[in-house]
Amino acid sequence: MGTKLIIDTDPGVDDAFAIALAALSEDVDLLGVTTVYGNVSLESTTRNALRVLQLCGRADVPVAAGASRPLIHPQPFRAAHVHGADGLSGRSGSLPEPDREPEPGGAVRLMVSLLEAAEEPVTLVPIGPLTNIALLLAAHPEVREKIGRIVVMGGGLAHGNTTAAAEFNIWSDPEAARRVLVEEDLPRVLVPLDLTYRCAVDTAWLAKLAGTGPVGAGLEALTPDYLASYRKTLGWDGIALHDAVAVAEAINPGILRTEALPLEVECSFGPGRGATLVDRRRAAVRNEDRSGSAVEVATDTDLDGLRDFVLARLTR
């Protein structure tokens, strides 16, 4: 049927756009959606995922709730100041009530069952904290052969958004992020803030989306708190669709230009906790004696082409 995806998410406004992007793409087989704490509580992220799928007419996609906290150390705070108290600008109630309940057994069990049943490689798309993915890979190494790629939204090469050094998803559980991004050798793509900020869309783009029908209008209606926050971050009226950029790469490999680079995740308790340290020195002078393998880091794209791709898929 097309690219097989499992999305692991913490909706979140940009997560809602990302889920819809996959759910509405005819060339995507969205096998399942798993949820994790992050922008808001696990209860809220799970409810939001179910409602977004219902909005998209995709109640057939199974949803399972995963980790409610990081692997080791508590998450100091969540992102309600960006996404609203319910994760969707206080407007989650504007979405339709879901027809189905979360799957019993939880996120890791659902991912294992979907991967075991898959006859083709599956792309995992974690767009929240990496706790569920770290747990999956640690507890069920036998499913690694079914994973084609892991496309992660997270990290920052030049700076963070939650602290000066750290991006929110990595900062929320640095130990899990290090397990996935440094210690694994599966094919991985990291889609960092440096690029996703550049892919931000303006209010004219959002207005165009809202005018396309009930799904577009439903998604645009979730953005007021997010827009107010990004007005301060960007300095103009627009929003960053961070997670949708990662899903675009998962759907259409190569839509983002990447470079294979070694990286580390800072797990200390200093001001750099949660930073992604990407070695961008020339290969001839890099220290090759490190654990793990290089990660494909997304560094560029056709910005207008990417925006057009997302809009076209959301308005199909």
From TrEMBL:
Keyword Protease among UniProt keywords: no
CC per GO annotation: cytosol
Pfam family, one: IU_nuc_hydro
InterPro entries referenced in this protein's UniProt entry, alphabetically: Inosine/uridine_hydrolase_dom, IUNH, Ribo_hydro-like
Gene Ontology annotations of biological process type: purine nucleoside catabolic process
Keyword annotations from UniProtKB, A to Z: Glycosidase, Hydrolase
Name used for this protein in its record: Nucleoside hydrolase
Species assigned in the record: Amycolatopsis rhizosphaerae
